Amino acid sequence: MIVDHGQVVRNATRAVIISNRRITGLTADVIAELVAEIGPLWHERHQARLVSRQRKRAVGAGAKHQLVFVDRMLATLVNLRHGVTHDVLACWFGVDRSTITRAVGEVRPLLAERGCTISPDVRLRSLAEVVDHLGATGKTGIIDGTEIRVRRPAQGRKDRDRFISGKNKQNAVKSMVVTDQDGRVLFCSPTEPGSCADITHARQLDVVSDGVIAR
After folding, report:
1. Helix, strand or coil, per DSSP, at residue 175
2. Cα–Cα distances in Å, from 107 out to 38, 112, 135?
3. Which class would CATH give 5-114?
4. What value, to the nearest 5°, has the Cα angle with vertex 175 and ends 169 and 180?
5. Residue 160: what pLDDT?
6. I need a surface site. Which of 88, 121, 195, 203 has the fewest CB within 10 A?
């Protein structure tokens, strides 16, 4: 009997991540909903990329994906929640770092487009919708910057120093996160290099103007 060690590693990692809510912050049911909703969209875009360029082989030929979509989703969720480096995730899932980097790069935009579900009938997809929601409900919004450690940019890259965080003195990217007073995430911004100050990032998003929070 031939055993695919890589597949065994991925199956074990998947089971642990799904069963332990502390790892992703999501229940198994919510993860299943995300996979069912975003998986077909990822597949559709992947197929569109394949047919959009000239090919020497037919679509579907060649090496297959090492990570099925659910594993790509889980790797992305762990990366977003804990800032786990792509190298560590690659070890967890038994694949190359480049595979994780590609997976996160493909899945994260899909999660952003989906937005944050506040209730079964309310989903917020933009910062403007978040501001309107807070105003309509009379709830307080809490905004803060969060840093995620990243690999040091390649030598010779012109903006290499911009990724060094002034606070933690490490290479990082930064996002602005908005929650309500109950701690529910309402918005997570695109990332900026770690050297970007929180107030500068907030102004770029039009959240604050001259120190005053937008309402």
Report:
1. strand
2. 8, 9, 31
3. mainly alpha
4. 125
5. 83
6. 121
